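We emphasize that the prediction below concerns an isolated chain of 391 residues; any contacts that depend on oligomerization or on bound cofactors are therefore not represented. The input was used exactly as deposited, without trimming of termini.
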Amino acid sequence: MTPGPGATTPAPRQAGRHAGDTGHPGRLTGFRIVLTCDRRSAELAAGFTRRGADVLVAPALRIVPLVEDAALVRATEELIATPPDDLVVTTGIGFRGWVEVADAAGLAPRLLEVLADTRILARGPKARGAVRAAGLREEWSAVSETTAEVVDRLVDHGVTGRRVAVQLHGLADDHLLARLAAAGASVTTVRVYRWGPSPDPSAVARALDAVRSRTADAVVFTSAPGSHEFLESAGRAGCRAEVLDALRGDVVPAAVGPVTAAPLVAAGLDPLVPDRFRLGALVRVLADHLAGTRVRRLVTPGGVLELRGRATFLDGEPVSLSPAPTALLRVLAERPGEVVTRHRLLDSLPEAADLHAVEVAVARLRAALGHRGIVETVVKRGYRLSLVGTA
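Result of the prediction step, given as a token string:
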């Protein structure tokens, strides 16, 4: 079965091996990743779970196709009656959906006839593929896969007095449309699908909680509307500042491309973006980043301690830790072999009131590790993670 919205998909188990055995782990074993997308969420989740990750599917929005939308039919009729000189195709799914709606309304033959005489510019290879699948031919396709490059091309070649139709892809790029109008074009927009509310608000709430509590390692965004709405959801829940703080440090924001990343950048974040704006490339670049920067191996008196995202392993065996001991261990692991004061450890514990909470968390951590010497007490100073070598 493929995971649905809100589903938490456990990392796959290998037959004949303990689930936590890291002798040959998936690259993302121990990591928890939040997906904020609706469309193709199962495909994206599978890409991460195959690598061992735990995935929380929490679509911030859902795509509502306008298959029977009267406004789209009217827009199509108007475009046929007054053909455009130029057409900007921004998404493959959007263009295909438009042709399907036109076909259901008996307008497809006339629409395609009109577009055959129109200069078509595609935002990227997916849009180009949809144009060609409809029996049409684009004049030009953007290398950067951005609407901005398409608009630059049109403006540079001159659009004064030309009718330009733009197939929208969710959020309207108002400033880009304004550039065309300012350059003298008469701009018409064609909205093929719209965004509706999340199909699983409870999953979004869990995702926000996972981010703010740092129990998630990464959040994946695949559309600009989804990026914007995730942050808006945090605002409505009263935790926007906490979510942004987490996404600036412990939790990695990852976006499929610069358009998707734009709302995150505007909020002061620095999202991870692959060189190729594809879901497969996004999975690979995030896996490389997490495995390369968020895995630590330390040789302790009790064995090789491995911290992988939110998970902990000792000599390949999983160590079950509650939030407080987990937070304490990560602070100690940031400075292995060095003394960390009780007050510094207290600051890392969620909702801890006094230094007694540190002592309780240390006791629980030692019990879970099964070897008291891994976490050493330094009298009147604090605690340190004891090392005997390098992994």
